Amino acid sequence: MRLSRSFWNLLAVGGTTASRLIGVLILYALLARMLGPAGFGEFTYWYTVGIVLGALSDYGFGQQILIRLSADSPEKIKQEGERLIVAKLILVMFFFLAALVFAIYQATEPESLYWIVSLMFSCACATLIEFFGVMLRARAQYENEALRSFLATFVASVGAAIVGYFFESLVVVCLVMFFVRLIVLFFQYAAAKNAVKFDGVFGLMFSIQEPLETLRNGFKYGADAGAGQLLSNIDVLLAKYLLTSESAGIYMAGNRLVQAALSGIPVLSNVFIPSLVVRRKNGIRETIPLLRMVVLFVSLSLVVVLYFGAPYIPGVLFGPRFLALSDFLPIFGVAISLRYLLTLDAFYLAINDRQIDRAIVQLIMVVISIICAAYFYHAGGFSGIILAYIMAFVGLIQLAVYRLLVFLIK
Q1: 0.90 exceeded by pTM
Q2: CA angle 94-99-102, nearest 5°?
Q3: Hey, which bits of 9-117 come out as E strands?
Q4: Do 291 and 265 meet the contact criterion of CB atoms below 8 Å apart?
């Protein structure tokens, strides 16, 4: 019965993620054709900034919600929900205000500020939609959340891409994404409020003690989430500042494929971490068989698809100016597979309160990535393919270290 419930929950969240994946790929495909490698690289850079800031503002709240709101008394769930919401809102305002200041300082052309600001607001809405969506999943309301996530991802991405492509305007793309997500956010908030029964949230924002206590208590989750996002996107920063604009744009197109393929990891987290928490409370430490089977299937499938599809995917998806990406895809396939394989140990570390260990390992991997890139850059042999190899190598080290940590604490 438990296996059956996990399977249907996986299908519900997986369907939403599949729509997100398709919508994002359509967005990238049309924008790549419209902007070319250099322009697409600039858009990807700022989109990555927005995604990273959204993840930093999450501060590990997603893990906390899945662990703390999945099984407890209604009053305790309500209190935890309120505290997390207030802390989340404060961090969103802080990080995205900093992003706007950074955009004003960093933007190469004054006209680009219009689409960058719209994109930052869109990313702020997206992280809040996901935050309230995790609340719904923690309360086992997967179907209730699926439609709104579909609207916030597929409809926003595809609608923005199509309208922007015909208007040939990046400003229009970002504005459409923002307004669609703003509407979805309103309904997502209302659904989460009904599920968690929180109230009095805005009053708590004027009490600094509650948010500070929440942030202090959740530091290990925030450190883990922040280190994870930095590791996931360090190659974008390295490509931006160490490669030519054309080469960086081609590499970032591949990075977008990697991030799209990795969107299945949050699905596994949202479905299986609550179940793993319950199993741990019942003294069961073994990995859920369905989780192991899904991870192995996805890992092998992605390697095969990207290896055999490498000659065709870049041209079909991004256009002829991105054909050089074919050389990258098999390497990206290996890197993606390693990321999925390490989730088995990553989830185990998470439910056993080893977030600080995960954060330290991920920060070490960031340092290794930077050192390797700096070495090849100064040696004169740095390229997008070398950067792809570096990220795959780092993923292999991370997998081995996680396996060692799990072995030591079991």
Answers
A1: no
A2: 125
A3: none
A4: no
